[in-house]
Amino acid sequence: MAQISQAAVEAAIREYRDPYLNTDLFTLEAVRELELKDGKVCLQIQMPYPSAGIAGGMRQILENALEDIDGVESVEITVGQVVRSYQAQRDLQSIRGVKNIIAVASGKGGVGKSTTAVNLALALAREGARVGVLDADIYGPSVGMILGIPEGQKPQTRDGKWFLPITAHGVEAMSMAFLVTDKTPMVWRGPMVSGALQQLLTQTLWGDLDYLIIDMPPGTGDIQLTLAQKVPVTGAVIVTTPQDIALLDCKKGIEMFRKVDIPVLGVVENMSVHICSNCGHHEPLFGEGGGHRVAEEYQTELLGQLPLHMTIREQTDSGTPTVAAEPDSEVARIYRDIARRTGALLSRRARNLTAPIPSISVSDD
């Protein structure tokens, strides 16, 4: 039996480059164990971001490469992932039970921010992460409806001081809408809203989340600035449409986060193309290329482009978002690609060394 060359095995592993970080697995420190014995190669990989959707393809590519090496009779590859806690702006103290907070924001309303926030949360969960959603849009909360949480359902409490989040479609959720009826207008000034959101965030007993997605209110006013200064955010995602007016407000959103030292992970271009429900014709009703131009101007990423399609609206209104309703659809695959890209970009941040030890998940899919 020919002896397996360690150098040849490592060279074959280095040939695989992560599709989101364009880096080999050794540089990513993703190779946790490599053992060569009696013609068998045992490889354990631990990815630094939620990546269940690409684990099978990665395993197959590596198996094919390793089996071609002289002396290799069998290959055993285990692919898992670990989500660590990364630094927030100005080293603000982490929220109990939450490793990372991602703010989903928009410079203006009506661009599909809440739909994107909820589907991003669901996509991260499908990729293997533990995820929660906080609805920070006090004046127009919609996360509960999008997740199909019945009107009037109230969160349970513990010890008289903690809210227990409501779980729907595999993610935890908290919203002011769970505490009042949808007919109760929130006639509050900015400081009252900021105080209420701080309470919702810190007095909810989150369940050891890898990511908490915050659906921010639209705009860049006092409320948004206060939240950005007081909430320990590890990254922001800006949602826009290709329209010139929306892009102007998108730029304001990016500038706001930059002023408070929150990294903008990227831009999601919503309604980038209209898909006719009858014939399938694609047409850029709101223009095209806007997301690319903004991303280039601000040296950030275009995380993905989502179509304007009737089914997205129907699924959102019915309380079963696209990622949950049609997990194998083209739109759901785009959301999952955005989720992986977002997690990968966040993994480049400096570690928060004061946070709890990260949880590790291993998948054999």
- What is the H/E string? HEEHEEHEHEEEEHEHEHEEEHEHHHE
Coarse structural class: alpha/beta
Distance between the termini: 31 Å
Strand order of the largest sheet: 8-9-5-10-4-11-12-15
Radius of gyration from CA coordinates = 22 Å
Strand tally is 16
C-alpha geometry: globular
CATH fold group of the largest domain? Rossmann fold
The first-level CATH class name of the largest domain = Alpha Beta
- Give the low-confidence spans: none
Mean pLDDT: 86
The assigned CATH architecture of the largest domain is: 3-Layer(aba) Sandwich
Helix amount: 25-40%
Tell me the number of helical segments per DSSP (H or I, 4 or more residues long): 11
How many independent structural domains? 2
The biggest beta sheet reads:
8 strands, mixed
Q: Strand content of the residues, in percent?
A: 15-25%
CATH-level-4 superfamily name of the largest domain: P-loop containing nucleotide triphosphate hydrolases
What does this structure look like?
With 365 residues, the chain is α/β, with parallel strands linked by helices. The chain folds into two domains: 6-82, 2-Layer Sandwich (GMP Synthetase, Chain A, domain 3); 89-353, Rossmann fold. Helix content is 32%, strand content 22%. It contains eleven helices and 16 strands. It has helices at residues 6-14, 52-67, 113-126, 143-146, 190-202, 222-230, 244-259, 290-297, 310-317, 322-325, 330-346, and strands spanning 31-37, 40-47, 74-82, 98-105, 131-135, 157-158, 162-163, 166-168, 171-175, 209-215, 235-240, 264-269, 274-275, 282-283, 302-305, 360-363. The strands form four sheets. Strands 8-9-5-10-4-11-12-15 form an eight-stranded mixed sheet, sandwiched between helices. Helix 3 packs across helix 11 and helix 5 (190-202) runs parallel beside helix 6. The longest helix has 17 residues, at 330-346. The radius of gyration is 22 Å and the shape is globular. 46% of the residues are buried. The mean pLDDT is 86.
